[in-house]
Amino acid sequence: MRRVAKLSAAVAASAALALTATACGSTSSDSDTSSSASSGGGKGIKIGLAYDVGGRGDRSFNDSAARGADKAEKEFSGSIKELTAKSSDTEADREQRLTDLADAGYNPIVAVGFSYATSVDKVAAKYPKVSFGLIDSVATAKNVDSITFTEEQGSYLAGVAAALKTKKDHVGFIGGVDTPLIKKFAAGYVQGVKDTNSKVKVDVQYLTHGSDLSGFASPDKGKEAASGQLDNGADVIYAAAGSSGNGSIEAVSAVKGAWAIGVDSDQYNIPGLSKYKGSILTSMVKNVDVGVYDFVKSVHDGKPLTGNQIYSLAKGGVGLATSGGFIDDIKTQLDAAKAKIVDGSVKVKTTT
Per the database record, which ranges form the ABC transporter substrate-binding protein PnrA-like domain (predicted)? Predict the structure, then answer.
């Protein structure tokens, strides 16, 4: 059984300098609590994980990254040190957190989220012998593997599914924060809906704006937003909002005939959401775990990946989950839409 133990008080105090919120990050019992933990007793590769707000247990983005690290830890007899952000973190906090991992001898170090872009470049330059991985943004330092995804392509397929499943010709999108990354999700979704049925209305809403990243860690806000869209007539809602999306799924489950579309992880199969799975139409799966595992393996093999690894729809980096069988009846249409994206006949927008 995997053991997770608290670090010493000194390390915990250092960890309080924290990280940040990201792409589709966050959740857990207290999003404003920075924490650190370590696992495994292996003598192999030492993996450092700098999570987004909420860290392991968010049932979405961070958990996907964790799965990749767990696989590598087990396969390579390694160990993991996890540091988790708080929503009030500053750039200095992020730099310190990455520095703490490097000073503790962890290599590789994975920064889970676009908010680490600047800090990764700064810290990587100071530790040229350490390999850094950055998810959802592109770094410039030579010893960094930038792991990015074509979220707009997977979201396009989610839009196709929504347009085919709505009975009211009215669907919704909830983004955690109006960042460029989350706008990619929205753009692809809206285009997928409209290309499938131009008559379908799409409501687009963001929970927070600008530097307020709490929209990734506020299930109550997600629930409220989804309830509002449902009241306004939407019957399919796609949320790209970290743990806030869990609240959206809860709201949808309370309305007969309505569907939720999950994000990042296959949320139908997440234990903490099991009581709502009958309402989870599909999830736009973003295989962060694959990117993390590929990166860690490359370091273990002595050939660290660098540059930008783009995980596209064609490469299986994004796609729709089929758990529950709720989209089996529209598989032909979804396969056709995927084929058009892959062969280039459909260009998916990254902004609306």
Answer: 51-350
pLDDT at residue number 55: 80
Sheet containing 170-177: give its strands across.
Answer: 201-208, 170-177, 236-240, 259-264, 280-286, 318-320
Give me the pLDDT at residue 36, please.
56
Q: Report, as ranges of residue numbers, the positions in the chain whose pLDDT lies below 50.
A: 1-34
Residue 348 lies in a domain: no
Please tell me the distance from the alpha carbon of residue 272 to that of residue 94, in angstroms, as a whole number.
29
Residue 213 and residue 170: Cα distance in Å, rounded?
28
Q: Which residues neighbour 133 within 8 Å (Cβ) at sequence distance 6 or greater?
A: 108, 109, 110, 111, 144, 145, 147, 291, 292, 295, 296
Q: Are strands 4-6 and 35-39 parallel, antiparallel or unpaired?
A: antiparallel
Q: What is the largest distance, in Å, between two alpha-carbon atoms of the chain?
A: 59
Q: Based on the domain organization, do 117 and 257 belong to the same domain?
A: no
Q: Using N-to-C axis directions, what is the helix angle for 91-103 and 117-126, rounded to 10°?
A: 40
Number of separate domains in the chain? 2
Kindly state whether residues 172 and 279 are assigned to the same domain: yes
pLDDT at 62: 87
Give Cβ neighbours of residue 156 (< 8 Å, ≥ 6 apart).
Answer: 188, 189, 191, 192, 195, 337, 341, 346, 348
